[in-house]
Write a structure and sequence with these properties.
Structural class: alpha+beta
Number of helices: 12
Order of helices and strands: EEEHEHHHHHHEEEEEHHHHH
Number of strands: 9
Largest sheet: 4 strands, mixed
Shape: elongated
Oligomer: single chain
CATH topology of the largest domain: hpI Integrase, Chain A
Number of domains: 3
CATH architecture of the largest domain: Orthogonal Bundle
Distance between the termini: 80 Å
């Protein structure tokens, strides 16, 4: 369809309501989800009569709106809904993300974005609309970190829409977040409590808890094989992670990253290998069928929490175990870059912001009697 000629639109005074206001009309080119072009009539509120006293003033306001449409580089607006584009995003873009990212994004799409934006036209969502969504989240009592994550996921969708030329700009970019929450420092378990937990867990699982505690790795990074252990250099290489049974590359890192261990740590791992009677290509922490690495998502609730409850220990999570070793690195003046590499963070400031405040003077080794 060829582009229509220059248009001026027309205005009228709405006197059927109080207060009276000016309404402008024009036509715009649109493209539907299938790529078919068409035109539709558009109405816009130009302001109250008290603010826009004359018809000429209303026409000037309408002309400002039509300036973009009359521009030679104007692109027709899409009539695709946000929900429709989200399906395209999940088909084209989401498969390129890490497994853990895909799971989190899909959950946010389903629970938060689709209920609010699903039926809206993608081209009609502006910064004000996104800010209304954020304000609704604030009113619902969501934490700062949760709202920030929702904005990040939403922004990623709009960024792809801009890239594919469905919209001109990202409406989530200039929105405001609420003030950060006041957070109490989490109470870390003592070394004695972690040792007590390790002693009362099955041997292999106890060693997994020990390794997460001393190395600060993510639980999904427990997908080690014995060939990943370099005994001579005292290094354990993170080459893969597991998410819901699927193996993929580590988060934020395209290359393998080493964990520097002590000779005592290596000896402890080699003892586990002897007990297992394992070969180099076997998993260090296998699942029940030994067909893959440990399923950390299920083990926490089924294996670890019942033991902590039985022993009267504080609530312990994989994240808390990961936090446990970080203060020790800070206390021993481990360089930020080295600590960042061990934690697997994309930026060193994440370590400073989220972990450095956890400094704990308690220091003891974790050992099995």
């Amino acid at each position: 369809m060829t582009r229509r000629r220059f248009q001026t639109g027309y205005v009228r005074l709405r006197e059927d309501r109080e207060p009276k206001w000016w309404e402008g009309f024009y036509r715009e080119d649109v493209v539907d989800a299938s790529g078919q072009r068409g035109r539709r009539r558009k109405a816009v509120n130009l302001g109250l009569l008290s603010d826009v006293p004359t018809k000429r003033a209303a026409q000037h306001k309408l002309a400002e709106i039509l300036a973009e449409i009359n521009d030679a580089d104007y692109r027709p607006r899409t009539t695709m809904t946000f929900g429709g584009f989200l399906k395209k995003y999940q088909e084209l873009t989401l498969p390129t993300k890490k497994g853990t990212t895909q799971s989190g994004y899909k959950n946010t799409h389903r629970k938060h974005l689709v209920p609010f934006f699903g039926d809206m036209l993608l081209c009609d969502i502006d910064t004000e609309t996104v800010q209304a969504f954020i304000n609704k989240q604030i009113a619902a009592g969501y934490s700062y970190d949760t709202i920030k994550n929702h904005k990040w996921v939403l922004s990623a969708v709009f960024k792809q829409a801009v890239k594919l030329k469905y919209i001109k700009s990202n409406p989530a970019r200039d929105t405001d977040l609420p003030p950060q929450d006041v957070k109490e420092d989490p109470e870390l378990p003592t070394p004695q409590q972690i040792n007590q937990l390790i002693e009362n867990l099955p041997y292999e699982l106890g060693e997994a808890v020990w390794l997460v505690s001393i190395t600060c790795i993510r639980p999904e990074e427990l997908a080690f094989k014995w060939l990943d252990l370099d005994v001579e250099k005292c290094r354990l290489w993170i080459r893969r992670v597991v998410n819901r049974g699927k193996i993929h590359t580590p988060k934020y890192h395209r290359n393998n990253r080493p964990l520097q261990l002590t000779q005592e740590d290596v000896g402890r791992l080699l003892k586990l290998k002897r007990v297992q009677g394992a070969k180099d290509n076997d998993w260090i922490f296998p699942n029940a069928k030994k067909s893959g690495p440990i399923c950390h998502e299920q083990i926490l609730g089924k294996k670890i929490h019942p033991v902590t409850k039985k022993l009267g220990l504080p609530h312990i999570t994989w994240r808390l175990l990961r936090h446990w070793g970080t203060p020790q690195m800070a206390e021993e003046n481990v360089p930020i870059k080295a600590a960042q590499q061990r934690l697997g963070h994309s930026r060193p400031d994440l370590l400073l912001i989220r972990y450095a405040h956890l400094l704990d003077p308690r220091r003891n080794s974790l050992s099995r009697p």
